[in-house]
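queue> pop job 88
queue> type: inverse folding (structure -> sequence)
queue> payload:
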């Protein structure tokens, strides 16, 4: 993507009512006004709140919102030029249950209050295979603690990835720490009984993986 195109998308994001771009210092040094208030202030209902972390182009956020109009969805990514597409599609399709936030995932506790979130989706994260990158792995112990702090007591996390490494690492961590693995499948498209929301929505990159016969894995779990 050219820098001119990126700039155009950044500028357009500023005009979208469903895009929020708080400055890092506003999250770290102060209480974000929408923290604990997303349903009341933005969605104007009490429906379950679902996050997609590292949402990329926002395809999964929008796809889930279309399938589940009685849930509210927020996609979060640090790259606003990416989720511009999802935000624009949500506006064009008049989806009232979609929002996007440009922020680092590490700051998720500054964006949401305790018990505010019902579900978290992590779709095709960078597996951060190198040992030095472990701290950025989105299912490591530090991230799980952050998720636990914003999820309600019945809250669940979904991990969908093309990385066997990420799948195995996460399963090992979950079992080792005594978390509740509700469902795990290392090839959702070739095994019967996969949850519909896992196979019915496919991202741009996922379609590319499938075209090369790459297995897509999935875990649904609860953090104890």
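queue> result:
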């Amino acid at each position: 993507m050219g820098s001119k195109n990126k700039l155009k998308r950044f500028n357009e994001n500023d005009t979208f009512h469903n895009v929020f771009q708080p400055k890092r210092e506003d999250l770290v040094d102060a209480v974000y006004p929408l923290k604990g208030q997303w349903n009341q202030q933005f969605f104007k209902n009490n429906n379950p709140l679902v996050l997609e972390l590292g949402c990329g182009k926002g395809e999964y956020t929008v796809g889930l919102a279309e399938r589940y109009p009685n849930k509210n969805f927020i996609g979060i990514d640090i790259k606003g030029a990416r989720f511009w597409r999802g935000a624009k599609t949500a506006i064009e399709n008049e989806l009232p249950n979609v929002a996007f936030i440009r922020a680092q995932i590490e700051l998720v506790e500054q964006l949401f209050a305790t018990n505010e979130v019902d579900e978290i989706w992590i779709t095709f994260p960078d597996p951060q295979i190198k040992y030095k990158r472990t701290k950025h792995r989105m299912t490591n112990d530090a991230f799980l603690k952050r998720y636990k702090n914003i999820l309600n007591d019945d809250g669940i996390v979904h991990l969908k990835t093309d990385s066997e490494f990420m799948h195995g690492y996460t399963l090992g961590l979950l079992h080792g720490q005594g978390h509740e693995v509700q469902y795990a499948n290392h090839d959702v498209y070739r095994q019967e009984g996969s949850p519909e929301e896992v196979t019915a929505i496919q991202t741009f990159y996922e379609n590319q993986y499938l075209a090369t016969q790459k297995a897509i894995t999935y875990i649904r779990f609860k953090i104890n």
